[in-house]
Structure formats: structure tokens, C-alpha cells
Fold this protein.
Amino acid sequence: MEKLLNYINGELVEPKKGEYFDNIEPATGKVYSLIPDSDIDDVNAATAAAKAAFPIWSRMSIQERSDILLRVAKLIGERQEELAQAESRDNGKPLKLARTADIPRAQANFHFYATGILHYASESHSMGDLAINYTLRQPIGIAGCISPWNLPLYLFSWKIAPALAAGNTVVAKPSEVTPYTAYLLSKICIDAGMPKGVLNIVHGLGPKAGAAIIEHNDIPMISFTGGTATGEWIARTAAPKFKKLSLELGGKNPNIIFADCDFEDMMKTTVHSSFANQGQICLCGSRILVERPIYEKFKDEFVKRVKALKVGNPKDNVNLGAVVSKPHMEKVLSYVELARDEGGTVLTGGKRAEVGGEFSEGYFLEPTIIEGLSHTCRTNQEEIFGPVVTIMPFDTDEEALMMANSTKYGLASTVWTSNLKRAHTIARELHTGIVWINCWLLRDLRTPFGGVKSSGVGREGGFEALQFFTEPKNVCVKY
Ligand code: NAD
């Protein structure tokens, strides 16, 4: 059985205690590789390597750093098919999604920050004849980067690339549920000539290897994407050490559909925004609010199209593959039961999808639509993070906004309308970090990305990430 290895000080190494745990393929339910069960000793070794590498990396010319990161981007592009196959197998997602979204985006992340850093400048503030201030934005030291399983290499590289571009060294941990492409990235970094110790990748469990990164005194900044409960623990643990924190957490995103929208465009996108990646994207619109005059028409057409979605072997031309793990599948199914208990009606789906053959033990779920629930019930308040959406009618703009803003989350929202004034007004009033008008997941990497309320603290993307990964220093020079 293949053993994945940690990437520490430029080398692929076994975990110090030599212990591993199983890596399961979601589509078959079978173990196919072994993951290092790293602990504090491995994190200490990674941190020591990152500490030793920092003075060299942070003082290297920006052009040289950029060139190394561009080589990583180029190799991701050259190995796109191998990476896409690995991502699909590790996560259960359709191969075509890994080929068209996950891996190209991981490449784009490195490319974007390798070139973005060349244009990153700081401010100066003149005090007339008296003095001039300038702002130094300096790399901080070691960045701890921890990422989730839903978009594995995509989100892992979204943190690592800006941290490195800004001149920091990194100790990173991918999700233990989907570690494989991070392991391939370590091989790519070796081939790209990344200097030793600049990037270190430690595999292992969140409460063990992950917690060791959060608690480490030599790691002054943490960039984390994952669940809100984990984010709360990280915030509590990092606060007394005054670490810089960027937290991208859960969501319960509203998709608000007005009667005056372009119905076909909205319908096509709504099927996608509900069930892409088996509904396991933090940005998926899981609460669909529909203006009453088109509610029945929307419901009939939506149910019809969702029933036609194909679930199955991720390598085939399917719409949905497997969800990521057995515990996650059971969690999602428990929410369908909860929805029934809360008085909801399952219009389609609600159970495991039978795929058969070598996939009979795989974690496949039917895409599920539920109606008849109040916006305040648990099903509509808690993050399910699977192929389950609810639909609810509304009568006025105010009611739509009230329902949309009624959860503790505030990551993203979608609005469908052809009324310009309404679109801008609703966008202004929504309590979310991102608002998509007549589109979904249309991303420009320069824009600020992140949520409000329990969806997180801070922003990634564009220069926001470079601001996070640097410390501003005011230098005041008297004439
Ligand atoms: P998770 O919080 O269980 O795990 C995320 C990462 O944190 C993993 O690498 C895990 O090993 C690590 N971890 C767990 N406990 C830890 C601890 N005590 N200390 C340090 N690290 C720890 O989340 P998940 O189940 O992997 O991912 C799903 C969640 O991620 C969902 O809530 C989803 O909404 C969220 N998410 C948010 C965004 C965003 O941009 N806001 C993007 C993708 C996913």
C-alpha cells in the first residue's frame, strides 16, 4: 500500500513515530493509501526548517521568488491530468470538475501571486516640508496554513502561494480526508527547485498535527479554512498568543430568486450552485428563496432538472460523484431526517444513490430538494454541506432580506433579478462577504474573498492576502 510522506526541509520523510492511518477512496469505500499520523515532533521539525529558511527566502529578490513560484505553476499545468485523477479519486468529485476547476485554479493561484507580488507596492504619506512617512510591508516569518477537504489543492494553494510570494516560509497541513494532491505538490516543489525549508507540508489529524501548528510559538500567523467550530477553537487558542488570524469558515448561503429574473439562466445556474461538487462548496446556495408568483413554476422545473442529474462513477460523465466520507454522508442523511421531523417534504432525493458494481460501497447521495420548512428551523440554520437544498417562497423584498440574513453565517449570497435598483439595494443590505448578481461563483482573483459573522474573519484574495501575510511598518523621516 502506498505511503504518503511529509515534506520537511526539502525532503520527503516518514513521520517521526512511523505511524500512519488509512486514506479511503470515497467512490469505493476502500483504503488505497496511508497517511502520516504526524504529531508535534514532526511539526517542530517542519517549523525549525521554516525558521532556518526564512532569512534567505525573505531577503531573496522578488523576481527570484516569483520565478520559483512560476515554475511551480508551470509544473502543476504540465501534471494537470495526474493531479486531476488524484483529486477525483481522493475526494470523490467528478473527474471533469477536477480537470476544469480544481487543478487549473491551483495553477492559477500560484501564477496569480507569483506575478501579483511584482506589482505590490506600499504607500507614502507626505507631511509637507516637515517629514515623509513610508510604509514598509515586510514578511512576518512562518505562516501556518490549514485547509479543508472540499477543494483540496485549490484551497491549499490559495493560502500557500500568497504566503510564499510575500516572503514568508510556510508550515502547512492539508485535510487528512484528502491529502493526496498536497503530497503531489511537495514532489512538484522539489522538481521546481524550491529552496529547502521554504514550504513544509505535514500530514495528519486536525486535533494533533493541526493543533500543534496553531499552538506553536514560532508560528505568528495562521490562515485557516474549514468548519466554524474548528475556527472557534483556533481563535480561542491563538488569541492569547496574539497571532494574526485569517479564518474562512462555514456558510448557509441564500439564493434569492425574483420573478423578474431571466428564468432559464437562473434555473441552469441554480442547479449548478446547489449541487456542484455534491453541494460541498462553502459557496453553494443551500437556501433557495423564490418570489411567490414563480414559486410553483420554479419548483416543477427545478425538481424535473435535479431528477435528471446523473450520480455515479466520478470518472464517467456524471453531475455528482461521491461525497467525501462515510461520516460526512451519515451527517448529511441525518439532516434529511431532521428536515422530515421539522415538517419538511422531500421533493426528490433524500437517500443514498445506488451505483452498483465496484461502487456499491461508495458514498453516493441523491441530490435532494426539501420544501415546507420555516426559515428558522435547524435545517435552514445549520450548515449541511452536502447535496441538500431547501426551497421557500417569499412575498416582498424585505421578507427575502429578513430570511436571507436570519442565520449566524454570512459567507455568500446570490440574487436573481432584472431590476437594477433592486439588485443594488439588496446587495447593499445582505449580510454576506460576497454577493453574486445574476451569476454564481464567477471569480476574479483580485477581489476580496471571505465572510462575515460566523463565516469568518479577514479576507483572502488579491492584495488582501498579501496584506495579511505582511506586517506594515511606518517609517517617519524628518527633512
Ligand atoms: P474542519 O474544520 O473539520 O477541518 C479543516 C482543517 O482543519 C483540516 O485540515 C483539519 O485537519 C484541520 N483541523 C481540525 N481540527 C483542528 C484543530 N483543532 N486544530 C488545527 N487544525 C484542525 O473542516 P472540513 O470538514 O475539512 O471542511 C468543511 C468546512 O470547511 C465547512 O464548514 C465549509 O463551509 C468550510 N469551508 C469554508 C470555506 C471558505 O472559504 N469560507 C471554503 C471551503 C470550506
